[in-house]
Amino acid sequence: MQLVRQTEHKTQHGHRVAAVARGRLGAAAMAALLLAALGTGCGAGGSEAPDKAAKAKAAAGAAGEQAGAAGALGTYAEKLKALQQARIVAAKKWGLLKPPLVAPQAPKEKPEISTRDGFEVEGQDELPPVFTTVPTEEKVVFLTIDDGAEKDPEFLKMMQELKLPYTAFLSDYLVRDNYPYFKEMQAAGVSLNNHTLNHRYMPALSYEKQRQEICGQQDTIEKTFGKRPTLFRPPYGNYNEDTLRAAKSCGIKAVPLWNEEAFPNRMDWREWDKDLHPGDIILTHFRGKEDWKGSMTDMIRHVMKTVTDKGYAVARLEDYL
Description:
globular; 9 strands
């Protein structure tokens, strides 16, 4: 698959990067809590002594907040430690030179997603946004895998043991011969999303035909896997106004495309600088040695080397949408 709709140039890959809530309580926040606790013992002046009961209540409340924050930090730190230890062991097993970095906590406030400049259609403001990068300042990227042709059990084991999040976009004509494979994937926490029933080139179809492809896959995923998707990726990344109108009518909320495409032996880049950026979406496919110079596990080894060497962690896309 080639990267498509590359209408932008040097300055545009970061055009909507915005600050988002970190979701972590750092040293500064802990210091602020401590100061607040200390401040409850300071009167505003005057001739009367502060009310002892009020003072005690305020101090107890501040101490409770501080203890709760410390407890939350301790729990998160323990989880991070356990996750990283598991990844170190799994990385050695699966031939990764470095364990994957642990992604930060998901933002409490989701970033505002809007359509990338140059990717709009007429009436875009009323349609699902089309984007290649999620606005964030965190050094995270998102791994997405399309279609469903290859059903490699080793890939499932690898991703579960490395505890790497990813998002699947499925086409039913490739998936229907082995639904249990994707049910196992879903049981491990992977979100299964819409890539149409038959992987047709959407702009060549009428509105009604496009709607059949998208809504039909919505119905199939809901019936087979129990959950109706809200994310849609058009085959080949190609779409028109009818595509997005049809997608919206079928319950689609967002249309993630991609900024990089991963293979077992290389990365293809959309941007001029051929580099990762915070919030980039990476595309790859359910493919094997019949199509690639390697397996899906080879592809993960290569993409994770690229991502980790550049100081990025893989995060869960749905946590940011």
